Amino acid sequence: MDSTVESVYSILSELNLPATLENLRNPTEAFMIHIISEFLQRFQIDVAAIKRTTLEQNSALRVTNPENAIIVSLINLREVMCIIGNEIFLKDFSINDFTSPGTKRTRTHLKFIANFALYARNARTNMQQRINEVLTRGQYIDDVRKKKQSIIEVINKNASEVANNKVNNENLKSNIEVIQKNIEIRKCEANKLDGNYKISDEKRLNTIERYQAKCAELKKLKEISEHLKNKVVKEPESFKLRLQELEEECNSKKEKRTSVQEAIQSKKPMIQNLENALAFVRKQRTKLPEVIDLQIKLIECNQMNESLKRQIEEATHLIDLEANRDREDEEKVTVKEVKKCEMQCEEKLNKLRSIHNELLAEKKALERKLMNYEAQEVELCIERDNIRGKIVELEAKINQFLRQCQELCNNKIKDMEMAHENAEEQMQLMN
Length: 431
Hints:
Layout: H1 5-14, H2 21-25, H3 29-42, H4 47-51, H5 55-63, H6 69-87, H7 96-99, H8 103-231, H9 236-267, H10 274-285, H11 288-430
């Protein structure tokens, strides 16, 4: 390997590393620290962080001497260069290469470092397109991850909405159960009211039948009353006076008849004496027309008495009719009470009908509300199934994309490993 000052300087100049021919001929500690730091910074390595002492080193410096901090920084740089040297075939880098660098050794080390920098630059140029593709893929993966995260958030949001909808559905189901229980209770009440209504309706029909029967009887009684009114005399007082007069006359005639009979009975003993009787007959013959007249009058009085009895019976019948009429008036009052009861029953029935109609309307409203709740539940279930299907599709696409990304990364890593192995082989061939 050509390690002359000019060849090393040309490579360092090509890489724009801070080096002069004088530095290469007579290397110093400051030059080595500066050029190694510049080399590390070319590969985005934080030199300041490397030079800072760790907590253990600070503790050790407190025990020894704080002025040894510079040596600690050089030790840290040497450790980093040893790690890097193992990768670029620079395996004998020591602390003396910083503190007291030798010319030949320094040129050899800088030659390895410069060759690696050239190789890295050329490899970076050759791999820039692939690196850009990898970076683009990485950016795409980040975008996909962000999109996946947003999708997961949407899924979680939808899941929370579905859970809330489930809770709402459960609440709606419990409310529906309560409403159904209330409906059953209202149905029982409505059935009871229907039973009471039927009983009341039967009572009403029975009352109407009785009322119609009473009306028929009342109509018949009215017809009888009208018929009797036509027969009843308009002035019963005069007939009562006439009846009294006839009764007095009848009584007087009865008294006369009894007196005549007593007289006849008193004269019977005298019949024994025929002569006396004949004489008496002769004497009384002149009075015979009067007796005949009295007998005729007695017969007439009996007939009149019979007619008076009939009139009394008719008057009694009229009085009974008047009493029946009073009873009819009472029945009219009863009919009024029946009508009043019917009106009260009708009012109660109207109230029961209105309550029944309200319960039916409430039942229909609750049934409509139940149907709406069931329709909403069906829509929510359909939407939930659609969301689940979309989630499954997205997860399948994401998994497929991640597999493709993983395969691509694995292929890129294999390519880089193969390129690294090829570079090592080339370096070995160059050595």
